[in-house]
């Protein structure tokens, strides 16, 4: 009997193992097909519908397509979406409609947020069949309208915060304390309106909150300590070459200020006002100004010369703002500038020795508005004329052409022995008054022409007429001193005469007296009949010759030094009869 070992055991055939593997594979494929078909069926059934349990603001929209869900949501929120919001702010109640606040529901976006979309994502399919929450709607917000609504709620409510402030009045500092305000919190109001929209009871209570000023009292004190008090503590001196401009606090305070910037008070400077102050101490437009002499309280005074200073205003402003915060004793700085000295210095003006009134003369004229205008304008132009030794005065050069642009109007003049109307009529009254002031000051007569016929309101033989471009009044200052001419007019009225006075100020050289001869070589007037449109009737009177003598005695002495004779021939003033022009 034979015994077999284990290695001699029989093995299964290989063909049967292969058949079993194919069976398993088939089972797995079948199961996969079954599951895939079910997943596909679940996908097809869910489509893009909203999860079954979804709702928005309490409106159920689950299991519907996005379009249908949006329609249902719009219908469900129709009343709430248009209901006004009751707002109480600062004790005042108002209603704000959603349209006024720019609030509305975006229905499509709200449905999409709830899950209304088609997807192979397993989580999406799971949510459709098992999920769905109550969500807040998606809002559209018109920011401009919402801002406008909030600003309207804030208008007139509470009180604004007041910044601390500081200003200069003369040499005095005036301050205003800060004050906390109460105002609506605009950001909180925006949030509250959006939150109340669509709520069951759309009501908002908006309290006022404290509003701090940008510039508080601590900022004010800092401004006082660092700038305002030092600025007015002492004068400031700007040095231009050899010229020093000293500015007192009372002079420059109005050019200073402080304004709020980024929560603090910062200095500001009116550069034009400062430039005007500096120019007033030196000269305008960088040109030197000669010294002169003017009447001050009725007495001649030297007006000092001013050097010409050309500078950059920005350099002056920078230097000034630096100096006003420095302590006393260190408030001086040199400013870059070009300096030009005047031709006629203060010393030159004093050397003229214009010290006293040496002559004065007054004439009168009857009421006429054209005389008030023309004589007044001429006096304005003559007044203040300063004649240096050797200089010649010309009334035409001083007064200028008598035009409307120069301030003159039409008035009566004498032309060809009769009265005519022309611009500047009446200026001869100024010529006559000035001539007599010159006469008694003892100045040299260069040119004067009496009127063609005598006018009885003028001193006989001592009067003068002028005509632009033809007849002038000229005299020369032949003394070693300056002569200041002062002219003034009191206008006439229907009940009073006008008064013209011309005075001359200098150092007295001559005592002047005068005599007038009898009238001689008398002539009779003629009679004229005129048919011109500009005819003015006149009752004539005769002409004559006359001599006026001027006697010169040195000031304070009785002995006659010399004399001078003025001879005048007056023609008759013709009678004028006006008749209508011939047709």
From TrEMBL:
Which terms are listed as keywords in the entry?
A: Membrane, Transmembrane, Transmembrane helix
Look up the signal peptide feature and give its range. Answer: none
Q: Which spans are transmembrane here?
A: 21-45
Q: YoaR-like putative peptidoglycan binding domain spans which residues?
A: 132-203
Determine the domain of life of the protein's source: Bacteria
> Which parts form a coiled-coil structure per UniProt?
none
InterPro entries named in the record: Glycopeptide_resist_protein (IPR052913), Vancomycin_resist_VanW (IPR007391), YoaR-like_PG-bd (IPR022029)
Matching entries from PANTHER family are given as: EXPORTED PROTEIN, EXPORTED PROTEIN-RELATED
Query: What name has this protein been given in UniProt?
Result: VanW family protein
The species is: Nocardioides luti
